[in-house]
């Protein structure tokens, strides 16, 4: 993929951009094979890839420059700013919104935060698009609520210019550190969530809840999990680190009991709403720590789905799963290194199949889905 920002040396985020897509996939598969190394794998499925450009559904833009001429993009280590509104990873729909947001910042008097001086109000703009209908969620990350009156007064103009903005909110992040968002969120619109749909499953994107950034590949990831699970005799499943419920809601049937656990209450609200829309009744989503929930249970399900953050599920949960021994574990990971480490702490399980999903083109990162079964049983 050609990128003028990369060629000019202004942005080097896509570290693998000079490699062909075929070479990228080959190198990622080599990395995965090396990480699993001594672990026998029953089936290596072909890697799944999507588009190489305009695939992102989310932009996380550092706001810098001046209130009259804001820059939306990143800050280099030396403090210099790079505007990334022309980044080819974003669609034209994002660029149209960026073009309106720049004059809006001046209209609302949202002075960009200056890291060196620790002055200003507007730190980040977070923009998310739904592939369902092109609706968008816009979040302003501010240092304080001092500019709320000006922001609210200017919003009618913004919504008139950009009717696709369904959800608009402000997040307060007062700490002078590289932390994306704070705990306080104020929603200015009647809609509090953005509707999405993958494979006929309604999903809801809310502020302060995780959602995959590559919808084309994510929908294939969920569909693959569904196909693998529905080939198994599952009557009760746990979906740990469930987020907005993507895995559990894809895999569940009306005859199955589903328990979904996620630490973020906003994500649980989304998952609960989706389950109601699907007419699933034996579903229990709770905002809890996944490891703490699991290790306190006695009723062990047939299947445990885990989709942890980059740190993996960890020794405590691995030990619990090894002892309680559910028949099947479905592990989705954005960090194959920690996944491989975790699997080695599950000695009673074997890898039935694994598949790489190229969620992050032009980088060395990828998602991987691995099906584990207890003992010598087969699928």
Q: How would you briefly describe this protein structure?
A:
The chain is α/β, with parallel strands linked by helices and 379 residues long. It folds into two domains: 4-52 and 214-374, Vaccinia Virus protein VP39 (Rossmann fold, 3-Layer(aba) Sandwich), CATH 3.40.50.150; 58-191, OB fold (Dihydrolipoamide Acetyltransferase, E2P) (Beta Barrel), CATH 2.40.50. The chain has helices at residues 4-7, 21-36, 92-108, 148-161, 215-230, 246-251, 265-278, 290-295, 314-324, 336-344; strands spanning 41-44, 58-65, 70-75, 81-83, 122-129, 136-142, 165-172, 184-187, 194-198, 201-205, 236-240, 257-262, 283-287, 303-306, 328-333, 349-357, 367-374.
Could you characterize what this model shows?
- This protein folds into 2 domains: 4-52 and 214-374, 3-Layer(aba) Sandwich (Rossmann fold); 58-191, OB fold (Dihydrolipoamide Acetyltransferase, E2P) (Beta Barrel).
- Helix content is 30%, strand content 27%.
- It has 10 helices and 17 strands.
- The chain has helices at residues 4-7, 21-36, 92-108, 148-161, 215-230, 246-251, 265-278, 290-295, 314-324, 336-344, and strands spanning 41-44, 58-65, 70-75, 81-83, 122-129, 136-142, 165-172, 184-187, 194-198, 201-205, 236-240, 257-262, 283-287, 303-306, 328-333, 349-357, 367-374.
- Helix 3 runs antiparallel to helix 4.
- The longest helix has 17 residues, at 92-108.
- It is globular, with a radius of gyration of 22 Å.
- The active site is at residue 334.
- Keywords: 4Fe-4S, Iron, Iron-sulfur, Metal-binding, Methyltransferase, rRNA processing, S-adenosyl-L-methionine, Transferase.
- It catalyses: uridine(747) in 23S rRNA + S-adenosyl-L-methionine = 5-methyluridine(747) in 23S rRNA + S-adenosyl-L-homocysteine + H(+).
- Its EC number is 2.1.1.189.
